């Protein structure tokens, strides 16, 4: 049976097939047109569903408390509050059992309103049964329960109609569609495209295909979708315009060819799915996920997405603002010391690789003499480097020179925790990093950070050997694969200790 362990297999073979990041590939005219088209903002479906559930439960609970306050004289809050909250919780469970909290359900009219009305009625009936079984009938108003039941149905119908209008509007604007491309071509891709159009046209914006074949098996247009280039072109395409989903249309039996495709694509921050529409093997339903009605195998997911992306954004902003407030005296003293020691600007700006290989401009306190600044990091700083000032040696050793990057975090270019961004021309043993290390660009699948797993494990500072940069990249990839908010918090707490105990390579 064909089986792919993407994390292991792609890590082992990335160097052989990964695209070089040193130059920009020329893409087809059609691909360039797509890239030039303005991209509107999208909203993750899981975020919409989560917010919709929370708002719905809050409205039902608020309605219960309002009716209780207006109708029930001398109501015992210690009795009504658990009953209201418990009923709302049971109601939410039943709404999910009835599959009413899905984007497809939100678009429907009769189906979702009838199901939520029935589920809410059952939730209230279960609460009435609970009141009866616990012999609390004298403590709870029957009229209140009936009014809450009827009022809840009216509220739910009105809420779902408003939600339906909003989701349909976002759908028409394309804000709910995943920007999708297909890897593969020919008759197999044609069948896949038709299935997507039949079952997922509202959720997928299909741009075209990428296929390495150039013979009759891979025509320039398949089912109305243009061929945009080879698979290696997809790397450049996805770095210049957002791509959410890549569907590989190849038979499961073509294990070697599938693996070759995946080892090229794994450096991208996208969801990768292997279509099962050509497979003669039948698996249990739990083995599949779905794009519309199309069965697919999950090969790789974006490392941080949906609610995790929201949580990390909030974490970054809160930590950055707090750090700026607490560390502002140190930053002011550092700026004054730099000005007193040598002429020139306080800050030093440098282009570096950011998320998805894009270029960002990061801020640092200037640690070198003005006439010896190295904006391209052609030569790494070494011990007792004559280019570094006295103040510079101290702030580099203590990483105070990195504090201005808190402003990069507030701008959304950096995270507090993530792989450290490297200068574009940084080298180890006279080789550019991406030439020296297998799968180097996979570390750019998440936003770079001010500190990271590599740094707290001692891999900070000078990376003059290939072994050092390989160790840093390996730690970065470990962080990406094992990311969690708790891991970010742990790294932040460990960073001050590592600055003291693991600073032998920081000059």
TrEMBL record:
* Residues of the Bacterial sugar transferase domain: 312-499
Quote the subcellular location field of this record.
Membrane
This protein's major location comes to: membrane
Record keywords: Cell cycle included?
no
GO biological process entries: polysaccharide biosynthetic process
The reply on keyword Membrane is yes
- Its domain of life reads Bacteria
Transmembrane stretches in the record are 43-67, 79-97, 117-137, 143-163, 318-338
Q: What membrane topology does the UniProt entry give?
A: Multi-pass membrane protein
Tell me the InterPro entries matching this sequence.
Answer: Bact_transf, EPS_sugar_tfrase, Undecaprenyl-P_gluc_Ptfrase
A Gene Ontology cellular-component term: membrane
- GO molecular function per UniProt: phosphotransferase activity, for other substituted phosphate groups
Annotated keywords: Exopolysaccharide synthesis, Membrane, Transferase, Transmembrane, Transmembrane helix
* Family, per entry: Belongs to the bacterial sugar transferase family.
PANTHER family named among the record's database cross-references = COLANIC BIOSYNTHESIS UDP-GLUCOSE LIPID CARRIER TRANSFERASE, UNDECAPRENYL-PHOSPHATE N-ACETYLGALACTOSAMINYL 1-PHOSPHATE TRANSFERASE-RELATED
> Which protein is depicted?
Undecaprenyl-phosphate glucose phosphotransferase
Question: What organism is the protein native to?
Answer: Devosia limi DSM 17137
At the highest ranks, the source species' classification is: Bacteria, Pseudomonadati, Pseudomonadota, Alphaproteobacteria, Hyphomicrobiales
């Amino acid at each position: 049976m064909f089986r792919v362990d993407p994390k292991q297999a792609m890590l082992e073979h990335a160097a052989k097939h990964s695209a070089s990041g040193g130059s920009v590939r020329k893409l087809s005219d059609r691909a360039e047109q797509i890239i030039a088209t303005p991209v509107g903002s999208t909203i993750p479906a899981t975020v919409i569903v989560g917010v919709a559930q929370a708002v719905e439960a809050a409205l039902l609970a608020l309605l219960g408390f309002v009716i209780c306050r207006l109708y029930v004289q001398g109501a015992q809050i210690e009795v009504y509050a658990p009953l209201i909250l418990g009923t709302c919780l049971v109601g939410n469970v039943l709404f999910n059992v009835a599959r009413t909290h899905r984007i497809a359900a939100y678009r429907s009219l009769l189906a979702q309103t009838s199901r939520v009305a029935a589920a809410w009625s059952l939730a209230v009936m279960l609460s009435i049964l609970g009141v009866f079984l616990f012999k609390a009938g004298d403590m709870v108003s029957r009229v209140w329960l009936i009014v809450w039941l009827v009022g809840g149905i009216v509220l739910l119908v009105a809420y779902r109609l408003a939600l339906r209008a909003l989701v349909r509007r976002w759908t028409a604007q394309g804000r709910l569609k995943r920007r999708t491309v297909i890897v593969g071509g020919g008759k197999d891709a044609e069948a896949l495209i038709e299935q997507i159009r039949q079952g997922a046209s509202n959720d997928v914006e299909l741009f075209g295909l990428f296929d390495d074949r150039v013979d009759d098996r891979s025509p320039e247009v398949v089912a109305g979708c243009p061929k945009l280039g080879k698979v290696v072109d997809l790397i450049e395409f996805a770095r210049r315009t957002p791509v959410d989903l890549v569907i590989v249309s190849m038979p499961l039996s073509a294990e070697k060819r599938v693996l070759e495709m995946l080892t090229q694509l794994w450096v991208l921050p996208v969801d990768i799915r292997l279509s099962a529409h050509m497979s003669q093997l039948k698996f249990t339903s739990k083995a599949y996920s779905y794009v519309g009605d199309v069965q697919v195998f999950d090969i790789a997911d974006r490392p941080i997405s949906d609610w995790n992306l929201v949580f990390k954004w909030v974490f970054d902003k809160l930590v950055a603002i707090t750090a700026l407030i607490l560390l502002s005296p140190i930053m002011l003293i550092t700026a004054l010391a730099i000005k007193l020691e040598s002429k020139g600007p306080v800050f030093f700006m440098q282009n570096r690789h950011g998320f998805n290989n894009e270029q960002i401009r990061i801020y640092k306190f200037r640690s070198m003499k003005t006439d010896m600044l190295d904006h391209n990091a052609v030569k790494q700083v070494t011990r007792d480097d004559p280019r570094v000032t006295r103040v510079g040696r101290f702030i580099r050793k203590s990483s105070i020179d990195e504090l201005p990057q808190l402003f990069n975090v507030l701008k959304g270019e950096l995270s507090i925790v993530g792989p450290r961004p490297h200068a574009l021309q940084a080298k180890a043993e006279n080789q550019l990093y991406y030439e020296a290390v297998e799968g180097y660009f996979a570390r750019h699948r998440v936003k770079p950070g001010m500190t990271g797993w590599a740094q707290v494990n001692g891999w900070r500072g000078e990376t003059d050997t290939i072994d050092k940069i390989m160790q840093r990249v390996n730690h970065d990839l470990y962080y990406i694969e094992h990311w969690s908010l708790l891991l970010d918090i742990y790294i932040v707490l460990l960073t001050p200790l590592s600055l003291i105990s693991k600073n032998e390579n920081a000059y």
